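Methods, example record. To illustrate the input and output format used throughout this study, we show the complete record for Beta-xylosidase. The sequence lines were provided to the predictor; the line carrying structure tokens was produced by it.
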Amino acid sequence: MLGLFLWLSVTGNAQAQTSTGKPFPTVTIQVDLTQPKGRMDPVWAWFGYDEPNYTYMKDGQKLLSELAALSPTPVYVRVHNLLNTGDGTAALKWGSTNAYTEDANGRPVYNWTIIDKIFDSYIKRGMKPLAEIGFMPEALSTKPQPYQHQWEPGKPYEAIHTGWRYPPKDYEKFAELVRQWVLHSVQRYGKAEVESWYWELWNEPDAPYWGGTPEEYQKLYDYSMGAVRRALPTAKVGGPHITGPGNAKAAAFLKAFMEHCRSGKNYVTGQTGSPLDFIAFHAKGAPRVVNGAVQMNLGTQLRQISTGFQIVASYPEFSRLPIIIGESDPEGCAACGMKTNPENAYRNGTLYASYTAAAFARKYELADYHKVNFKGAVTWAFEFENTPWFYGFRDLATNGVDKPVLNVFRMYGMMRGNRVAVTGNMAYNTLAVRDSSVRRAPDVNALAARDTTANAATVMVWNYHDDNLPAPASPVEVVVRGLGAAKSVQVIQYRIDQTHSNSYTAWQKMGSPQQPTAAQVAQLEKAGQLQQFAAPSKATVTKGEVRLKTELPRQAVALYKLTW
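The corresponding predicted structure is encoded as:
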């Protein structure tokens, strides 16, 4: 049974109050620190992006440092296009490293210069690559021309599907490229470091990202992972990073892949099976514009996750393997801004933040429900260098200024120890959100953790609704139980709302400048940091519990940090 969230049916009276603009009744959220529900593993500390060459650019370097500072454990990073042929010039949904070319006689030429710049950026910050083997170098592609695409927002998405996506004309040469890459990594960073990485093949091979058949993908997997293991027998390998497994085609691809790894004939060795140390799939939501306003669909994303967990759990041989949701986002195109895709207008403000808070809490719960080994979920958002301010890309920062959503991850970074029981009178059950999303009353809910190494606890509270419409703030009382003999607690409340931790509203108040002055940039950088809602205070503990009251606006997120 799902025990973390209690959902009560929304009454007609509550809906009437919403429609008339009257204040909501007080929301009561009860936290019991004595009832652990599972570890507060940093499954959120995973990020990814299409454009690898942004990694070592000015704003990319700044953001990487901020991401590395978020988490008590190493942050993992996944990027596309690491083996593409080209000069390293960055472009939307494109990247290149020129790692593999051939001389006039068809002999391989390896060049790790750009890959090293990318991976050096991670390693020196204590970050870890989720190393994606792909895509196909021009010299190896079975259909190389045209090779580099010239896509830009507003163009058909199919325009990106050029020569990089096809199987190799020589599987042995591709395998040797992979082997040389792993050997080089071990030489450069050390065996112990590379053992902590994850190696995977390709991206979304059930979709047009892969220009071959499912069988050709399995063949390339056998060649690639065999090459990884020849270079480093203890390396962690896996895949297949399909699109959402709620789709029948994607689910069939995932099952066929797992069956091949379990009992299929290995294309390289002729033996049974192929190495598989982790399983990866993607999960996206589906926002749209309804009557001029953005309507999110958290339920769609959770159904993809739930189905993927269920499929993995159905294979006894693989049911305890780590699961990585390789892209886990409100929708599917990070480089599609809100000008060309108005449904993506959620990205600059607090709606993206509240969605992210509510979504990750439910990912934990779904993993508990399906009893799977949930390792991480990659937020496919980074930054887009030298692009317009607040263009509406799915990014964590714009021109070096952090957006509100990044502060949710700062909040998660403060949550340690064990997740504990939470109930509430305006909280949706996780399965209810999965099946119907959040379309009636708002989901005013919380995720709480008890630090197992100190007298400390954290409670993240959000006021989320799929519909991005004006609504009254909700009065919230958080009751924290299980404080034992403590007489008082120190309370710090952090907040993301229209006036806190929000560079976007600060930019709008400036008149939305596309060429802000140095003083304005400094002001925006300050506004983009996580801010306290008020000064730290002491709260009295009565019979082992403390009561904390606040007003939480729609699409806002608060984090209470308690110490005693």
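Annotations derived from this record:
The radius of gyration is 24 Å.
Residues 1-20 have pLDDT under 50 and may be disordered.
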